[in-house]
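Exercise 3.2. Students should predict the tertiary structure of the chain below and write it as structure tokens, then compare their answer with the key that follows.

Predict this chain's 3D structure.
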Amino acid sequence: MQHSATLFADDAGRYAYVRAGFSWSALFLGWLWAVAKRRWWLLLLMLAMDVCLWFGSQLASELRLAPMLLLMAVAELSYLLARGWYANRWLEASLRSHGYKPVAPGASTGDAR
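Answer key:
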């Protein structure tokens, strides 16, 4: 199975690859994925969401409310899946907002060898 990826470049000559589809690393690593990709706003949003879900789970556990525990488990699972599904889209949108543009296939990278 071949994964497709898009190469992005900015005017300063920096490059970044963005894979298409699901991001397993974002699913399992979460905010560490955002640190590795150097996307600081995504890092802050992911940390905020993680903290909110953690506090909700702690509250549900403390109060011993089974429906709330189930709701928090569903919310956490939904968040994990959304993070994996949308991570590459968020990365692409972030790169585009920072001036990166897709590089056309077969385009020269400036190397004259």
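Discussion points: Helices lie at 24-29, 31-37, 40-63, 66-97. The longest strand covers residues 5-9.
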